[in-house]
Amino acid sequence: MWASECCYGNTIKNEGSITNMKTNKKELTPQQKKLEVNLWIIALISMAVFCIYGVIGKQLNAFCKDSSISVWPRLLAASAMEFGIAGLGVTVVCIFRKTSFLSFGLKKKNALKAVAGAVLCFVPHIAFVVLSGQFTGYAPLSIMVTPDLHKAGIPATIVGTLVVAIVWGFFEGFNYAVIAEYVSQRYPRESKIFDIGALVAAIVGILFHPIHFDALGILDLVTTFIALYGMLMVRKNTKNSWGCVFAFLFIWNAI
């Protein structure tokens, strides 16, 4: 009788310990809860717009490439889709949380180090593009409607190029920086060579672009990962995000 009660008591204690462990694992600080909400907002908005693109992508591309249509609605349509996928989510979160863009490392301190580091991380990808014969010329701030912007005159070229720089350059690079920062804060790790935020953001970036599993496709995948992950690790160690923005302004969308 006593032995069975003892065992029963131990069982209750063990079950209580397991329950407490589970409860402790599930407990999040208010800051962690905010970070999870932020990440869900970004993810849901980006995926919603990406799904829309999956449905109307062919028609949208055909519309944007049609030179018989005025360049402005084509530029605005392409910009809206790009911003929706990489920019709208982080903007909504920053407005919702009343957070300044500048707080994510857009500052002067270590800006040159961040830019230089990001460029170095892209060297393997640049080499791959050149050596694989895919390099057709260096054209920063250029998208499918850029030739028609140039034909529309100097004012159209200036304004249109500024729109491209903001959407395809600033917001795309900034988007990676914010996602990496939020994930890193939610799942903090003390390491100079590994960061969960950089890893997640790099994988997300790869998944949002075409993937091929032939020899060239795998090399493209590896060098792209090195570029994105390295760029984000530079951002973490310098605490400066201008390297991310520079990479998307003058490398990613330029070669």
- Unreliable segments (pLDDT under 50, ≥5 consecutive)? 18-24
Beta strands, count? 0
Helix count from the secondary structure assignment = 10
Radius of gyration over C-alpha positions, nearest whole angstrom: 23 Å
| Element-level helix/strand string | HHHHHHHHHH
What's the rounded overall pLDDT mean? 89
Give a structural overview.
The protein has 255 residues and is mainly α. Helix content is 76%, strand content 0%. It contains ten helices and no strands. The longest helix has 36 residues, at 30-65. The protein is globular. The termini are far apart.
Task: Describe the structure concisely for a colleague.
α7 packs across α10 (242-252).
Topology:
Layout: H1 2-26, H2 30-65, H3 71-85, H4 88-97, H5 111-131, H6 146-151, H7 154-186, H8 196-207, H9 215-238, H10 242-252
Helix pairs in contact: 2-3, 2-4, 2-7, 3-7, 5-9, 5-10, 7-8, 7-10, 8-9, 9-10
